[in-house]
């Protein structure tokens, strides 16, 4: 287990020590995988894209320059890999919620239920809003790095993050409202026996 | 402080990047404004979302890819001199000193002269002039690509492949140079880049045929896998016999054979 910074490892990879890429793979495969699953909802595709990212790192390793933050560089590659994939297979673009475990409205702990609602709210955001939240909240990219990645001004990044959060709040509210209604209806249905049916006990 | 002002500060507040004064201002606003406070609460809750784990096979796939890549690289002849290793940027500039590099530069300079001359002589350009200029530029680019693809340095040839992607339509000469590069270039990286460039021109039938044919020449597992993936992406059924032939060949890397099997099942 090496503690060398990502940048040093990448420079070694660039200079021919391909085996050091394994350390970077161990560090980045889970964050990248989560970036893709939360963005696309498709586990198999996400795994393919993670592999593609590492293949591209090898292919383009000569273009890595000393001093470039590796994290920002790798997410640039990750974004491009996804964009290229959807350019080639445009039909797969839609987020397919059925590929993720369903959210059950059963009575679970409140926090668990909130997390589930939040997950669904995130999925309802337009892709570019979901992406920017993922980049800054989960991938620990700095706003400057995100600006570089998206090719926009720093202030635009701030505005976009705020708008994405606003939308997330609205989506979360809508879903929480629906969940409450469903629960209330279920409770009402339990109290009122179905017409013509046997009441049993 | 109003919501609009807070909106500007909120993203930095969330990262803990605000000065003490501004931080206190935002916090005072959050106590009064339920909506903004809720946004902050949601931001914090995002960290509770579960982290999903990739399947255990993912690491093995990566290992196979890395091995294939390294196997491919070790068969490629080393073209870097010691001088080049000490000064990596030297390699990418060296081609400029060669005769063909000079041709490329002259072409580029000529183009600049041509444009500025036309522009100065007549500042009102007609669409015909533009069209003439476009085609002039396209042929300059082709010349540059062709000369770069023949350079000694792999870096220069990579550059040539990249230049070729600037044109929507491939000139037949550039196309055949790219196909030659795909089949015979000594560098794995250049061959892969050529495949990338050619993949944009799937509409041209000879591209598909040549890519399928190139399967037989390749020794590098990495290029073999890239070619297989490309053929699957094109859903090119005519490629199936080529894949079948490849998988029969002795000494084939097991990962490549597995990939070929997968591709055959996809195409049938």
Notes on the protein architecture:
The complex is a heterodimer of chains A (201) and B (268). By secondary structure, chain A is an all-alpha fold. Chain A has 2 domains: 1-90, Rna Polymerase Sigma Factor, Chain: A, CATH 1.10.1740; 106-192, Arc Repressor Mutant, subunit A (Orthogonal Bundle). Helix content of chain A is 68%, strand content 0%. Chain A has helices spanning 6-14, 21-40, 43-59, 70-88, 110-124, 127-137, 143-150, 154-191. In chain A, helix 3 crosses helix 4, helix 4 runs parallel beside helix 7 and helix 5 (110-124) packs across helix 8 (154-191). The longest helix of chain A has 38 residues, at 154-191. Chain B has 268 residues and is mainly alpha-helical. Chain B has a domain at 3-40. Chain B has 15 helices and no strands. Chain B has helices spanning 3-14, 20-32, 34-45, 57-75, 82-86, 88-94, 99-121, 127-149, 154-164, 172-184, 188-199, 205-217, 221-233, 240-248, 254-267. In chain B, helix 8 runs antiparallel to helix 9 (154-164). The model of chain B is unreliable at 75-88 (pLDDT under 50). Chains A and B meet through helix 2, helix 3, helix 5, helix 6 and helix 8 of A and helix 1, helix 3, helix 4 and helix 11 of B.
């Amino acid at each position: 287990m090496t503690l060398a910074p990502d940048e040093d490892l990448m420079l070694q990879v660039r200079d021919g020590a391909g085996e050091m890429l394994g350390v970077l793979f161990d560090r980045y495969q889970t964050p990248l995988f989560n970036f893709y699953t939360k963005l696309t909802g498709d586990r198999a595709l996400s795994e393919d894209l993670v592999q593609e990212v590492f293949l591209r790192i090898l292919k383009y390793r000569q273009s890595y320059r000393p001093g470039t933050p590796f994290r920002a560089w790798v997410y640039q590659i990750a974004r491009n890999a996804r964009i290229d994939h959807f350019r080639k297979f445009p039909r797969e673009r839609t987020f397919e919620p059925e590929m993720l475990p369903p959210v059950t409205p059963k009575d679970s702990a409140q926090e668990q239920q909130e997390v589930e609602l939040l997950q669904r709210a995130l999925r309802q955001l337009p892709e570019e809003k979901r992406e920017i939240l993922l980049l800054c909240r989960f991938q620990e990219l700095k706003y400057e790095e995100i600006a570089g990645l998206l090719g926009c001004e720093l202030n635009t990044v701030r505005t976009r993050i705020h708008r994405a959060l606003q939308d997330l709040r609205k989506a979360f509210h809508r879903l929480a409202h629906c969940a409450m209604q469903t629960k209330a209806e279920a409770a009402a249905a339990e109290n009122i026996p179905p017409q013509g049916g046997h009441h049993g006990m | 402080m109003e919501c609009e002002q807070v909106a500007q500060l909120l993203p930095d507040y969330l990262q803990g990047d605000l000065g003490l004064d501004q931080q206190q201002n935002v916090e005072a606003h959050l106590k009064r404004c339920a909506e903004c406070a809720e946004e902050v609460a949601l931001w914090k809750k995002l960290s509770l979302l579960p982290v999903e784990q990739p399947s255990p096979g993912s690491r093995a796939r990566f290992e196979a890819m890395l091995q294939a890549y390294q196997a491919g690289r070790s068969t490629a002849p080393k073209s870097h001199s010691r001088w080049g290793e000490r000064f990596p940027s030297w390699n990418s500039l060296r081609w400029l000193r060669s005769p063909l590099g000079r041709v490329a530069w002259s072409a580029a300079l000529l183009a600049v002269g041509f444009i500025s001359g036309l522009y100065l002589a007549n500042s009102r350009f007609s669409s015909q002039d533009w069209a003439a200029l476009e085609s002039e530029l396209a042929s300059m680019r082709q010349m540059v690509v062709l000369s770069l693809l023949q350079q000694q340095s792999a870096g220069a040839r990579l550059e040539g492949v990249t230049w070729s992607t600037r044109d929507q339509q491939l000139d037949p000469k550039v196309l055949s140079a790219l196909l030659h590069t795909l089949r015979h270039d000594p560098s794995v990286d250049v061959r892969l880049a050529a495949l990338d460039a050619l993949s944009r021109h799937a509409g041209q039938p000879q591209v598909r045929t040549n890519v399928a044919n190139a399967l037989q020449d390749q020794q590098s597992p990495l290029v073999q896998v890239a070619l297989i993936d490309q053929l699957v992406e094109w859903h090119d059924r005519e490629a199936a016999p080529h894949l079948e032939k490849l998988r029969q060949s002795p000494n084939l890397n097991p990962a490549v054979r597995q990939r070929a099997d997968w591709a055959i099942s996809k195409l049938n």
